[in-house]
Structures are given as C-alpha cells and as structure tokens.
Amino acid sequence: MTAHEQIEIELKFDVAAGRPIPDLTALPGVASASEPIEENLDATYFDTENLDLADNRITLRRRTGGHDEGWHLKRPAGAGGRRERQVPLDPDDADPATGIAHATVPAELLEPVRVHVRGRSLSPVAVIGTRRQITEARGDDGLLLAVLCADLVTARSLLPGGTGQTWSEWEFELVGENGGDTDLLGPAEELLRGAGATTASSASKLARTIGAMPGHRSTKPLPAKPTALELVITELSRHRDQLVEWDPAVRADADDAVHQMRVATRRLRSVLRAFDSVLGGAARDTIGDELKELASVLGVARDAEVTAQRYAELLADENASDALRAALVDEQNRRYRRGLRVAVTGMNSARYFALLDAIDEYLVDPVAGPDAERPAKKALRDAVDASRRSVRKAQRRLAKHDRDTEEWTEQMHTVRKKAKRLRYIAEAGATLGISRHKQVGATAKKIQSLLGDANDATLSRELLAEVATTLSSPTDAFVLGRLDAREEERHAEALRRYDAIADDL
Q1: Quick one: which H or E segment has residue 45?
Q2: Which of 205, 258, 268, 282 has fewest C-beta within 10 Å?
C-alpha cells in the first residue's frame, strides 16, 4: 500500500448541536464558500493496553466513509500542527457484524510509531461515528484555502468501564502546502467564537471518548532550586525524548537522522557516567552498556555516510573515472545502506525495546545515589571539574607519545572521547540557566572536533591506499595521489589547530 503524508493545522471548538455556521466569506482572502457537503464517517481507534500512543499525543485509526477513508496516523508536528499519514483501506479487514477493524495495522503506519508501541500489541480502544457537514472556503482564484467541518459525534470507549457519548464540534482546517496559510487562523477563531463556538473540552475526539489522556512523558521544567537528581533526570529525559524523536526518522532514512540518534544515545550515556554518585542501581549500568551497544550499531551506518560525503566533496573537482568514483563513493553508500538495514533490524528487536522500557522506568523511579540531594549547581560544577581534569590527564599522556604512532593514535581517541563527554556535561548548564560552563563546553567541542578531523583524515588515507591497489589507470593513480596529499594536509592542519587550543581547558 502507498502512504500519503500531509501537515494538518486546525482549530477545534465545542458548539451547541444544530448551531448554524457563520459566513466564511467574512474571512480575509475568502471569496466564496460552498454549500455544505455531507459525509458519514465511522472510525476505529487503536492503541496499546497502556495507551502508549495517546500518551505521546498520537492517534491511529481505521476510518470508512468520506473522501479520505483509510488508515490514518496523526503525530505532533511543529507550530502546533499534526503530521497525518494515510494508507488506503483493505476492504476485508473489519468484522462484518460489528464493523470494528481487526486486521493488522499497515506497516507504513506502524513503523513510524514502533518506538512507542515497541513489542506490545495494538487493539481497538474506541469507535467514533461522525455525521459531518463540510463547507469549503476558496480564494478569488478558486483555490481551496480551508474547510469548516460541523460534526455531530457519537462515540463509544472500548476500554474497561468505557461509556458512550454524543456531542457537536466545529473543526476549521487549513488546506495548502505545508499546512496552509496560518494567517487565517486568528480571524477564523474570532469569527467562529462570535458565532457561538467555545474552547474545545478535549484536544481530539479520541481524548474526549476515552477520558483524560495519560501524562505525556516529556521533559518537565525544573524547580527554582533543583537537586542534583532533579537536574540529572531532566537531562536524561531531554536526551531520551531526542532519541525517541529521531527513531522514526532513522527508519525512514531521513537526512542526518542516524547521526542525531547516535548523538542522543551518547548524551544519555555521558550523563549516566558523569553523575554516577547522583544515580545508583544496577539498571543505571545496564542502560549505559546497552546505549554503548546501540551507538556502536548506529556508528557503522554513520561512518559510511560521512565517508561517502567526504569523497564526493574531494572528487567534485577531480578528473576521476567512474571506476574510481564507484570505489570511493558508491561503495561507501552501499556500506551505509547495509549498516542502516542492520540498525533498523536492531531497532525492531526485543533488546532495543527492553532498553527503551528500562530508560522510561528508570526516569519514573530512579535509584538515588549519595549525592542525589546536593544542589544541582554544585553537582554540575563538580562533574564539569572532574571531567575537565580527566581530559587534561589524557592530554598529558598523549603528549608523551610520538605523533601518529599506534600508542599516540589510541590515546588521541581517549582524549577525543573524554572531551566529548566534557562538552555534553558542560552543556547541561543551559538547563540550569547558567553560563559559567559555556566556554569549557565550547573548548571541549573544538578539541573533540579537531581530533576527529585528524582521525578521519588518517582513516581516509588508509582507504585511499587500499583502493589504489585495485585500480590500474594512471589517471586514477594520479587523482588518488592528489587526494592523499589533501588528506595529509587536513590531518596536519587539524593537529596544528588542536595544539593552539590544547591548553585552553
């Protein structure tokens, strides 16, 4: 089945049954309004037993009737909108006696929410029938700008103890590229409220049907004087949310998604390690180990992605043969695709879902360490100082080795990793609204980046040497030599810049 996706931006209001809608031509830019178009819609909503989708403001339904009947997945999008993905119906996936859908949810809709559903099953949680009258608002050129849906809703919760209810509501939905012209929202709200509309009692039909929505597991604001434990849980929650946000993007092979998800795993692990006296329990160490493994799995695809981009840029102005481009760029792109498939397979595993569950459980019920009740600012100061000392110690050991030897390279990796951890810890100061660690974090980031650049250039030269043994063209050999010289200079320049800031910590 083919999925279709769009941005939905709408206003929702409660209204008395039978209330006449206002004249939409009173809205700026609206030249005409259609006669009401009537549709009868019947929808079955799905969720897990724990309402994991509703908990994350996501709805999944199978709807019959209307111009857009099918499976619909709605997820939060920017600027208060919703991202809606649709898949056509399979006509044989409902019980003919009850009309309630029972078929497997289409993979195109399940994959984007797998990070929330995990290994749990989906089942019907509500059935909602809507008698809808649609009024279309069009501009001077006849272009559809928005629709006003006057809905009479009959709903029944399928949860234990659930009941039925009926109500009326208006939905004013924009139509157009990227969700439509948001300048219409303000005048539309004023017009509809003037016609008798009131603030909607629930965010969605499903929310009203099943009752109060579960508390969304998002980052909560810190109190005025937070403890170390409150700071750490806030930081872990923030990075957990980032991991969860990038999961569907990785599955969809979105640009930079693997990188961002990998960063989120590393940030989580850095916080766990840096504040080990604030947190306790075996779960902390288990989560840290599993995050390390996840970052490693994502790293295969990420490294290949970076290498492919690197060689594409290096070859942009070179007279390279198709064979050389294939050996350098195409092969790395193939390696990326293989790595991505392995990563997504891992992200569909019970092990990955167990990690996500463990993080969620630990955030709800963390094990407090001996420093849990210390003031957050003091705990952060000590963590930054300890991490900075660790970087300096690693730098002193690095200086004892001859540059580019095996021992130097291994120690360089240590410095780079420790600098990255220092950067992530220092950046937690922004959560507390303090800037005293900002410069330390910025310097650590530069050290991490420059040593990473030096390492990337070394690895690139090794790969160029390998490719040189497989090609016989003199022209390609000349190009490879030029590339090697450029990478050698990149390596040297990165280390020169590192030397200039190495003592700034």
Answers
A1: strand 37-47
A2: 282
Place of tokens 């604030």: 278
Q: Examine residue 265 and state whether it is found in any structural domain, yes or no.
A: yes
Residue 137 parent element (H or E): strand 123-138
Q: Nearest 5°: phi and psi at 478?
A: -65, -45
Which residues make Cβ contacts (< 8 Å) with residue 219, sequence separation at least 6? 234, 237, 238, 241
Strand 10-14 relative to strand 198-199, pairing: antiparallel
For residue 463, the enclosing domain spans 375-505
Element (H, E) at 417: helix 406-426
Phi/psi-derived region of residue 136, left when phi > 0, alpha when psi is between -120 and 50, beta in every other case: beta
What value does the mean pLDDT of the chain take? 94
Average pLDDT over residues 253-263: 97
DSSP state of 66: S
Does 190 lie in the same domain as 52? yes
Q: Residue 390 carries which side chain, given as an amino acid letter?
A: S
- The encoded tokens of residue 286 equal 């288990």
pTM strictly above 0.85: yes
Residues in contact with 202: Cβ distance below 8 Å, sequence separation at least 6, in sequence order: 208
Confidence bin at 304 (pLDDT 50/70/90): very high
Query: What pLDDT score was predicted for residue 102?
Result: 58
> 109-144 in b/e burial notation, b at 16+ Cβ within 10 A?
bbbbbbbbbbeeebebbbbbbbebebbbbbeeeeee
From CA 81, how far away is CA 48, in angstroms rounded? 24
Residues 384 and 317 in one domain: no
Q: Cβ distance 288 to 269 under 8 Å?
A: yes
Same domain, 236 and 179: no
Distance, CA of 25 to CA of 30 (rounded, Å): 5
Intra-chain end-to-end CA distance of the chain, in Å: 56
What are the phi and psi torsion angles at 107 (to 5°)? -60, -30
- Specify the DSSP element, H or E, that contains 55: helix 52-55
| CATH code of the domain covering residue 313 | 1.20.120
Q: Classify 144 as helix, strand or coil.
A: strand
Strands, DSSP E only, in 161-285? 164-174, 198-199, 279-280
Q: What percent of the chain has pLDDT over 70?
A: 95
384 and 341 in one domain? no
Could you identify the residue written with the tokens 């989120």?
A: 264
Question: What residues are paired with 7 via a beta bridge?
Answer: 83
Chain-centre distance for alpha carbon 16: 39
3-state secondary structure of 385: helix
